[in-house]
């Protein structure tokens, strides 16, 4: 059998059902791998006792041949943005230092109800604000892929999730995606990451960044694993007012690989100036793979794409400034030391100055600015109107019979940690150029590893689907995955 930590969810599920291994054996193998991977800085709060207890319970269920639980005995990593009862949940921020929720997020509860095992909490960009996992209070996450000895970013904000899955520290992980934070890191480390339709997965108990954009999803080793894990994560939740009251289909059953007659759109606006030839070639190869599988490839136009990044970086910081106002040093988390004569205003100011990192402060200030009385219409309302136009672009394309849209996942392969530290922040924001439109329109999107660049680093392709049709999107991704045949893994150096 494959080394236990290298198993996919589907392989582990089958091995467990055949009695070839136990959840406790897989869990112990993962815990050992985590212990030996401190150099990656992916796991930040380990929960071995919880993991062993959950694994033992899963094995007892398995002996009773209770095969109804989709994720029974599968060890996962949980992004630090998800509240986990009695376990530190800091959103990688100093301001939430010491916070241990008294409740479980809906997503983690559903995963546990489906039999999953929690190995620990994963590193991330602070409050999910970042594209390189360099804004975390825990320090940088390191990509398991290396070139010329350089430490590379795993992407962000779900960098810990991406690094942990790619390095086989866990079988899969939860991520969240506000502007590409599942798909971009998945592409940087050579795994598969799915952002579901907005409302498909509950946001309750997930620390908020931008409430109209945030969506949780699976980060896995294969498309099939994403289908299995999404089935466990998804569903209506009355505690989340934006949760869709829709039945959850059997996403795995949709994976036939047959895409004959499907219409795949190639948006001309995604051919950006200065796009590396390798990305362009990979995109063309992906289109050829889907054509060979029987799909019809058509050119499409999404005319408002060029306004997506500016609109996103008005709307997301505006919502962040509102959501992060609750961190004031009064109710929970970090509180600054007070000087004699300080009042509540000084406490708020000092606490936030100490508790929030530079990138979070930057976005909160931008958000407060665009929501202020003199600029609300000029910036925020205008960005909302642009968002509506971007959404309509997709609606018009889907109305023409397009089933999915193929684009690059990222404008480059993973770059070195620290390489953009002194650059204009906009240079970092450009990492989201292919992904933010999907969040603005509330659509499902998936990143599939499809090749290597000339340095030997993974590159991903993105497929964008119709709203609520994750099954169809996953099937198209399954066909692309099969044709690409990406099986490369990072050489172990950590």
TrEMBL record:
Keywords: ATP-binding, Ligase, Nucleotide-binding, Protein biosynthesis, Transferase
Catalytic activity of the protein: L-glutamyl-tRNA(Gln) + L-glutamine + ATP + H2O = L-glutaminyl-tRNA(Gln) + L-glutamate + ADP + phosphate + H(+)
EC main group: ligase
Enzyme Commission number: 6.3.5.7
Keyword Transferase assigned: yes
Catalytic site: 79 (charge relay system), 157 (charge relay system), 181 (acyl-ester intermediate)
GO annotation, biological process: translation
Assembly: Heterotrimer of A, B and C subunits.
PANTHER family according to UniProt: GLUTAMYL-TRNA(GLN) AMIDOTRANSFERASE SUBUNIT A, TRANSAMIDASE
NCBIfam families reported for this sequence: gatA
Function: Allows the formation of correctly charged Gln-tRNA(Gln) through the transamidation of misacylated Glu-tRNA(Gln) in organisms which lack glutaminyl-tRNA synthetase. The reaction takes place in the presence of glutamine and ATP through an activated gamma-phospho-Glu-tRNA(Gln).
Protein name (record): Glutamyl-tRNA(Gln) amidotransferase subunit A
Source organism of this protein record: Candidatus Rhodobacter oscarellae
Species lineage: Bacteria, Pseudomonadati, Pseudomonadota, Alphaproteobacteria, Rhodobacterales
